[in-house]
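Q: Joint fold for the lines below.
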Amino acid sequence: MALLTGDEYVESLKALSPEVYIRGQRVDKVWDHPLLHQTVNHIRANFDRAADPANGGKYTVRSPLTGEDVARVQMHIQASMDDVLTKARLTREISSQQICSGCMSNMLSVTWAMVHDVDQAHGTDYHSRFRDYVAGLQKGGKVIAWGMMDPKGNRKLRPHQQDPPTDLRVVEQKPDGIVVSGAKVHTTFGPAAHEFVAVPCRALGPEDKDFAVSFAVPIDTPGLKLIARPSPGPARQTEMESPLSSKFLGVEAMSIFDNVFVPWERVFMCGQWQQAGNLPLYFASLHRQSKCACSAGHADLFAGAAALVARANGLSENSGHIREKITDMIMAAETAFGCAMGAAVEGQIHPSGVFMPNASIANCGLNHIRSTLGDHLAALQDIGGGLVTTMPTEADWQNPALRPYIERHLAAGPGYSTEDRLRALNLCQDLAASRLTGTILGFTVNAAGSSETNRLVARVMYDLESRINMAKDLAGITSRA
Amino acid sequence: MALLTGDEYVESLKALSPEVYIRGQRVDKVWDHPLLHQTVNHIRANFDRAADPANGGKYTVRSPLTGEDVARVQMHIQASMDDVLTKARLTREISSQQICSGCMSNMLSVTWAMVHDVDQAHGTDYHSRFRDYVAGLQKGGKVIAWGMMDPKGNRKLRPHQQDPPTDLRVVEQKPDGIVVSGAKVHTTFGPAAHEFVAVPCRALGPEDKDFAVSFAVPIDTPGLKLIARPSPGPARQTEMESPLSSKFLGVEAMSIFDNVFVPWERVFMCGQWQQAGNLPLYFASLHRQSKCACSAGHADLFAGAAALVARANGLSENSGHIREKITDMIMAAETAFGCAMGAAVEGQIHPSGVFMPNASIANCGLNHIRSTLGDHLAALQDIGGGLVTTMPTEADWQNPALRPYIERHLAAGPGYSTEDRLRALNLCQDLAASRLTGTILGFTVNAAGSSETNRLVARVMYDLESRINMAKDLAGITSRA
Amino acid sequence: MALLTGDEYVESLKALSPEVYIRGQRVDKVWDHPLLHQTVNHIRANFDRAADPANGGKYTVRSPLTGEDVARVQMHIQASMDDVLTKARLTREISSQQICSGCMSNMLSVTWAMVHDVDQAHGTDYHSRFRDYVAGLQKGGKVIAWGMMDPKGNRKLRPHQQDPPTDLRVVEQKPDGIVVSGAKVHTTFGPAAHEFVAVPCRALGPEDKDFAVSFAVPIDTPGLKLIARPSPGPARQTEMESPLSSKFLGVEAMSIFDNVFVPWERVFMCGQWQQAGNLPLYFASLHRQSKCACSAGHADLFAGAAALVARANGLSENSGHIREKITDMIMAAETAFGCAMGAAVEGQIHPSGVFMPNASIANCGLNHIRSTLGDHLAALQDIGGGLVTTMPTEADWQNPALRPYIERHLAAGPGYSTEDRLRALNLCQDLAASRLTGTILGFTVNAAGSSETNRLVARVMYDLESRINMAKDLAGITSRA
Amino acid sequence: MALLTGDEYVESLKALSPEVYIRGQRVDKVWDHPLLHQTVNHIRANFDRAADPANGGKYTVRSPLTGEDVARVQMHIQASMDDVLTKARLTREISSQQICSGCMSNMLSVTWAMVHDVDQAHGTDYHSRFRDYVAGLQKGGKVIAWGMMDPKGNRKLRPHQQDPPTDLRVVEQKPDGIVVSGAKVHTTFGPAAHEFVAVPCRALGPEDKDFAVSFAVPIDTPGLKLIARPSPGPARQTEMESPLSSKFLGVEAMSIFDNVFVPWERVFMCGQWQQAGNLPLYFASLHRQSKCACSAGHADLFAGAAALVARANGLSENSGHIREKITDMIMAAETAFGCAMGAAVEGQIHPSGVFMPNASIANCGLNHIRSTLGDHLAALQDIGGGLVTTMPTEADWQNPALRPYIERHLAAGPGYSTEDRLRALNLCQDLAASRLTGTILGFTVNAAGSSETNRLVARVMYDLESRINMAKDLAGITSRA
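A: Joint structure:
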């Protein structure tokens, strides 16, 4: 049962009636809205990949929680170095095909560790609830929307100082549950999920304890509103024009909680401000290691698209600057992937059983590849040529009066038809000259934390003092200052 | 008469009926089509800027051809170092406001020089025709579409070897004129122009002499078809969401010539293959110097937008990494602008009277700033934050049921309303996460020639042998190898 | 016996009388020559590190060949992922203290694999000889000089086409052995070694079979001449001025073989040109993985020295640009080290039993850190300040008439004396403004192969075709071209 | 008389007896000391260049102060845009031959402007004294040592707070002059100068007024002690080995003033703390513009050396990565030189008559080229190959027993002898793998102010507020915050 097919997933959405808005309008049927097409399709592809027997279990793993196979990248709590290595390889592969691998297992794993910490520190019993909750997700083949980032309002004030409060918090504790209000931002794919899981996004002080809250609710819980931003792909149906963004990637949403009730069995933290900072800490290690592999997949996709358009243009991927630019893409991919693997080797087991990669290596590898992305996008346009932004559109090609002109004047390289060439150019356009470009850039720059946070992690984790002492020894300095 | 207002320009379009296609459909009224709105508006703004008496002649210059004031950036043949310096300053300013300054004077100037070369070499009399033609443009306040780049077909074959031919060429010479067929690509703003000017795009051999052709025709000449690609901005009317791309930048087109007749008085070159290569040579010098200033303007815009969104987010443009990233934008702008000015100083007068900037400095300055663009776009998203790609849309904001939630949870920094913040974020989105992003990247990467051509010019113009000899002298080597 | 102390090593040199030249003069006593002081001391330190019981076996490993402990980095054939991970950690540590870890085990391991390949392909029995030879080295605690790179003469000709031949080759085969002539370049530390091991440096064709030769000879074998270039450190004794280069790093030599006889039991390859290219192939994988860790150690040293001089100058390592530059050093180190570990994880066992790291990751990680070195050296001078190149010398400080002036005017930051500050500045000077700087740069740029070879390996190992096919699938292209 | 020959200059040194120390020893004859050989020779070359009639006045200009020709780069107060452009061209050329052009005219020009400011603000009469002083230098063909940078002691304290004081200051005012004590650091070529000119190095407050002092004294004034650091070149005579550093570049010194008396007619500022900051301000504009051209010359030298060694190695400067790396050098040179010229065009006349280049462009251009230097040095070693750091030395080559081996095994490319190749390699070694490397790096990183100061100038001079307002207008924001 855990491995739903894509169709079963879509069918399951019909049982839910979340309060979703898009372009200001309330969405009636999530599974059948032109601006949610890509969102639903993206998740559907993940289900099909795991469920397809032809894949021979490549994308699944036997869950110790349920004894059943579950989708590794979406569902499994990572518990060993091998788990981490295997997931990184799959993440790279899937991301090279649809940009985002839907790595919700990362979110579940970091929450797993933080909730365990809460229990250890406070003698509470949240972790068994969370374990049961994850087991339920795995059994039901559920998709979660992840609510981590608070809007934060005025950046110079702490959460409890915001007036009125902007961030998600407990507003009432009742015998049977809690009531929460506030907002979370950056809820990727949220409208097409079954569940919403909330966690804190930063270290908190005692006055912020109401903001130290983690819980899960069904996506259509009363009071939960999702204001969604259209996915980067087109609303209209196209066949050639946006090959990737017409099928994949989805909406981002701002999630509003207006006095939402959560029963205690779905509460995983409530007031333990001391552990709130652990969540982003584990996220910085575990998710960024994963993102090294994810970004490597993007570079793989760029390399393939660049070489393809070179050929379709009648040039070789092995000549001059084209070769060098593709080599740069390859090397960025391999360096980031190498760091993903290296971070796994240098990682360790968290007391909760989650395997935590080495945060320093993961952040350094990620920072390296993210700093190359702008160059790769530019290279795709460079190799594709000016036509990437000036070629006729699909509708022109479909017009029989125009097609002969286009066919003739945009003749392609050996072995390629003009239509092939237009398709290759459109792939470059989709990646490097469309709204998707902005999404890819956003995924690279801001998702999983910005470059500044990478630098901070590297700096904080590094034992500089021991290197200073080594330098003193070499120089013959005895000062201890 | 030469300085039309924007309204007069729009009115003038009504007298023309060019054969324009967009998304596969024939366009009826260029001046009133939702997908040509930005194109027309962009040009209109250029007219208004020059014609507005409040600008005190800042954007105009007295043309020696007509004795009347003309728009400097669009119309004037540059004839002195001061012309070049002044135009570069204006280009930087205008490009910082609407990305593209409409620098058609560059195209006219390089054609001016090449046509002069043709006459000098062949004893022909094309240059007086071209002079008259330019004077006519200036008197009439005409906009030209520029057709330089041929589609080139199979890159490994010369123009005359393409079968069937892809590039624009003379197919018949008649007593009263010539007949041309073929295509030009990358016709920016073409549908909203009055005239089409064609020039060769590369060095040609004797077998390619039919491709050595330059001429002008009215935009609605029979047989000329423009297949336009929608501008990067939205088709629907928006107020907040795409502040720049909803107003400026326009369509790109592929221009088809299907047996178009050109009377001799509008032919400026016909068969003189020896001079064809001079056009791209002069273009590489003159237009790239201009583009240094243009790109500097883009970096100015990025710097302003980045500092604005930092403030609207409640942060300071002077703190930490934000300051450093804005400083990088500033330095890219100043370096490119410095090279624009330096290329002017090191330039010289072409025998035709056109002032040619130093090509090496211009190409090096341009290559420097273009290599930084990816970083600036990433920095805009970084400083803007994740909301750049995840914030609610304008329609959500206009929905009274949603606005209070957005208002509260996306509260802005001191002195800014939530709406201000959304507007600042939308400016960043328009620049760094929209189809406009792809256009800006395309302008940077491919327009006016790619980075490889910059490198080629720098290498070819450099006297390496003299530096090798200097190194030999220093090292005490007498070998002449 | 295998773990000699440093003193025992020096003593052992007295039994050898190699033909060594330095600055044109024949060296009499290698162990007592002012220009070989650092060379001998560098190796001595490696012996002491392994032999010192206080290190608790950290630097040793039980050799399966001898059943005795041997120095891991210098002697052990790496046979497992753990071997690789452990060696990488040690290499980073040692290189951070003396730049070069003396990683001769890399050279022995790649030769081990190639010789095994020879036997597999040709049914020969060289590998048992090499095994015995390595066991003998391990038992005797011998140091090898490594001769891989041939001079190559005219780069456009193959080895057998050089006239006269420049590269090392077999000139005669005799019943009891072979006679070799030619040269090897870049023999690091050679004069202070006990043995010389020669291997081929590139793929060879059948006509080049005489150049397909591998063997070992005692360093003082008749006919072997070493022309050594002084180490980067000073010849005169200094205490403060060159803290690192006065103690460590050594001579490079050009090794001439003038009809040198090698008995068959010390020949490991003779004419099997088909396997010659395997040596550089394995070297590119195994040694470059090691060099990632080595370069990480250099960045660690730079980070420590930079933070130290900041403090000694009265500034903090945590302020402004100093912090950012040190963070860059840290991130370069962690990225390279991460790739070293990742390359180990993605490696595999060669049939000979040698564990081969993943070459692509190793080359990409190395290329990344090597591309940052110039910036780090510049940063050391930047943080140190102008005094790094303008401060008074040690002799000035020792002059009692000058010291009070220096003491007063070069007062240091809190907790540091002027002498401490001079020492910290001198460490920066030694690293970033001395002949050692050139050596470090050379180690980074050319040792273990240049950046171009890194790029080549990454390109060749990458499955680009599969990514092109993926791009075709996404774009909807069926062409197989 | 103003244009001394090199020999006349050396002769003139014999009349002086400065108190110079080098390696702790008092120097007796500056003109005849092995460690001052390069220092004297460097200056001698500047004299010969200007005095040589064969140069047709290229390096001289008629001084308005004396009516006589003076060396432009060393002596002339720059008074027009043409002066700046001409000097930049000469600076680039000379720096490409001997690294440092001896641009003392920059120092005189900025002092000229600051002293003028003092008079304007305080009604004093220092400027006429300085004018006379400069006229005297020009008439006598005098060389100045420039003392600008104070040691600064504890960086967190102001000059008057240092205890004891470290910086140069007035300790007594007398009827006939002032007495000064303290130190200046980074006195380049000081021991071989005739005069010492001191100026303040930073903005000062009223309590620091004693440090606001500018004056000139003969180099052998009692109480002035120069502690010199040997030049980067060798002390021993070589012919091949250090082709550049054996002839050019010289000592750096720390200059101690121990109660030195200065008569009023040689005092140019005394206590006017308000104008002290103008000196570094003008320096940041004028000297950095000059340094753009100087650094361009270095890149020219690197390009020539790289192409030469490629040829001598038997490769072409036009193949593969060699071509790209040389192109990078060329482009760095042209970009910096372009900014030097652009800064001149955008400059303006200071009220004192000095032409001040645009500081923003100058700093941006300088920062660009300085950020490329590490890469160029690495490229020189890369193109030269490992032999740059491992080849035999000159003495080996001179040994008849070794030469035949070297001759044969280090055979060179077509048209080059082995000796030619060694010479080319030695030039690379001198530039990229010697103590000179550290000096070049130091000149690039720290001389004329560090990269951080470039960034500061660019930031401070930029009108960011106007760009923020433009962004507000585009976005439709009316907030004035």
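Q: Anything notable?
A: Chain C touches chain D through 83 residues (CB under 8 Å). The two ends of chain C are 63 Å apart (CA to CA).
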